[in-house]
């Protein structure tokens, strides 16, 4: 079986126009390229790296819906064998946000929820997120969030794992959490939470694998071997670029299979 990309999005013109994307475009050499990929272009990029399924997400922030759940549903409908969705919602009305999550997440087309704390400038233990966490527990799906520094020109403090995400894991012991974007520079905190919480996982989105921090690669081979999933952050990075030097990591066959697809299939019940 091919790989599973657990962090992707089909960026809309609204999202592509956000000023905080300028840093990411500069880092990835895409300052002069359109950042609104089609379904066809996305599937072609997946095929080029033997990616079977991408989890594509909705994005909601204080500026409104950047990618709506309705838009994600239409993207899934255009390639139902290749996409699954991660729903999101506007947390300014927590009760309605929870209803929105329950409206879309069915475990088949939408298989989880993604909330991006730096977009709200609110750490994940803020009370406004909690109704969404409760909905994830009731629905039996993972919460996907970002850990580590913020690439866009916004504060990184919301990505600290301790105390913010640890509070969530303590308050919701039944909640499966997937922290995206590796967690650098707080790799020790990542290791600590992995040992402490069996329901905590992480993905490698926003990194080509040969650029992963050495401490994170060691983590992948030890305590994190069954917790790490492949992700890209498409369209900022392509699957082919992310996986081009996979062999340099020195993973054994079982670790490679778990990283590319096995852990994601288990966690998201694919």
Detailed description of the structure:
The protein has 270 residues and is of the alpha/beta class. The chain has a single domain (3-267), classed as TIM Barrel, CATH 3.20.20. The chain contains twelve helices and ten strands. Strands 1-2-5-6-7-8-9-10 form an eight-stranded parallel β-sheet. A two-stranded antiparallel ribbon has the order 3-4. Strand 9 (200-203), helix 10 and strand 10 form a beta-alpha-beta unit. Helix 5 runs parallel beside helix 7. It is globular and about 45 Å long. The protein starts with a strand and ends with a helix.
Number of strands: 10
Strand content: 15-25%
**Main sheet characteristics:** 8 strands, parallel
- CATH hierarchy: architecture: Alpha-Beta Barrel
What would you give as the CATH superfamily?
Metal-dependent hydrolases
The CATH class is Alpha Beta
The class by helix and strand makeup works out as alpha/beta
Kindly report the spatial arrangement of strands forming the biggest sheet. 1-2-5-6-7-8-9-10
Count helical runs.
Answer: 12
Instruction: Report the mean per-residue pLDDT as an integer.
Output: 95
Order of helices and strands: EHHHEEEHEHEHHEHEHEHEHH
Question: Globular, elongated, flat, extended or rod-shaped: what is the shape?
Answer: globular
Structural domains: how many: 1
What CATH calls the topology is TIM Barrel
Helix content: 25-40%
Oligomer: single chain
Q: Detail the poorly predicted runs.
A: none
- Radius of gyration, Cα only, in angstroms? 17 Å
Our measurement of the CA-to-CA distance between the termini, rounded to an integer number of angstroms, reads 12 Å
């Amino acid at each position: 079986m091919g790989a599973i990309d657990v962090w992707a999005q089909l960026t809309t013109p609204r999202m592509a126009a956000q000023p905080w994307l300028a840093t990411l475009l500069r880092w990835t050499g895409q300052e002069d390229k359109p950042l609104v990929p089609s379904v066809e272009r996305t599937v072609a990029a997946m095929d080029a790296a033997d990616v079977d399924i991408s989890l594509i997400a909705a994005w909601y922030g204080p500026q409104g819906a950047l990618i709506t759940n309705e838009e994600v549903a239409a993207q899934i409908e255009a390639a139902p064998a290749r996409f699954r969705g991660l729903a999101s919602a506007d947390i300014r009305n927590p009760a309605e946000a929870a209803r929105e999550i329950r409206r879309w997440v069915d475990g088949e087309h939408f298989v989880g929820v993604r909330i991006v704390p730096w977009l709200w400038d609110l750490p994940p233990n803020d009370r406004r997120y909690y109704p969404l966490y409760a909905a994830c527990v009731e629905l039996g799906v993972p919460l996907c969030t970002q850990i580590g520094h913020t690439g866009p020109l916004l504060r990184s403090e919301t990505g600290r794992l301790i105390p913010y995400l640890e509070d969530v894991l303590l308050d919701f012991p039944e909640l499966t959490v997937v922290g995206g974007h590796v967690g650098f520079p707080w790799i020790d905190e990542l290791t600590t939470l992995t040992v402490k919480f069996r329901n905590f996982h992480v993905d490698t989105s926003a990194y080509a694998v040969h650029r992963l921090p050495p401490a994170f690669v060691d983590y992948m081979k030890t305590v994190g071997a069954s917790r790490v999933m492949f992700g890209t952050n498409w369209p900022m990075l392509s699957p082919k670029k992310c996986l081009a030097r996979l062999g340099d990591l020195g993973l054994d066959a079982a670790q490679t299979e778990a990283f590319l697809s096995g852990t994601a299939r288990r966690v998201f019940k694919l």
